[in-house]
Amino acid sequence: MKTMIRSSYRFVILVLFMASLSLNAQTPQQLFETGNSQYAQNNFEEAIKNYEKVLDSGYESAAVYYNLANANYKLNRIAPSVYNYEKALALKPNDKEIKNNLEFAQNMTIDAITPLPENTFKRWWNQLLHIFSLDGWAIVTVVCMLLFALSFIIYYFGKTTALKRGFFTTSFVALGLGLLSLALAFQAQSNEKNKQFAIVFSAEAEIKSEPNLASEEAFVLHEGTKVRVLETEGDWQMIRLADGKEGWIPATDIKIL
């Protein structure tokens, strides 16, 4: 009898404990709103904790990363500011406000890196490439090829010279645009596969010529600098800067975007 009473008591305690947890648990939206409220009260540390809880729950959005970056920026934390603005921009590439704030955060970094110059064709090609995403270029390719097929059928079965000439021109242009968009889609896909960037989180990181501490120092980077990750070997990662410099950095000194 006593055993049954103890078991019932434990069961009640467990149910009450679980109920307490469910009542105290906040949804990502509630955590986000709480963070916003704390941010408005200049309580940036607590705001950061709530925004990070939102991300830890598995939910992410440009707004969460953007507000998290803003809170870190207010505390002059360079690396987390740049990192989270970059994450926000990846989810909302054309947002001018995110771009502007990212630029402000990048101005706090120490390292002045001048990107390698691009020739006119490469600059034009990159501008064209960034008009659409990979999925966008895939859709454009399909539409152009469908237009080509339809125009060619109308041209082939057309009865008048004017009709045939018009749709022959349309099919030729559609085929050309389709091939161009296909090339851009492949380029976008290649860029996605090779695009692994990271932000330096260490206050000062020694970049080595080889992946070991005994190797020669190539150069030094500071927190907030964006690097491209080329290769991983053990606890080291090979990086490249926008100016073409390359070297090895401990994996603990950077955070992958």
TrEMBL record:
Signal peptide: 1-25
Listed transmembrane segments: 136-157, 166-186
The keyword Lipid metabolism is annotated on this UniProt entry: no
Annotated protein name in UniProt: BatE, TRP domain containing protein
Occurrences of domain SH3b (ranges): 192-257
Residue spans of the TPR repeats: 62-95
Keyword terms, alphabetized: Membrane, Signal, TPR repeat, Transmembrane, Transmembrane helix
Keyword Coiled coil: no
InterPro entries, per database record: SH3-like_bac-type (IPR003646), SH3-like_dom_sf (IPR036028), TPR-like_helical_dom_sf (IPR011990), TPR_rpt (IPR019734)
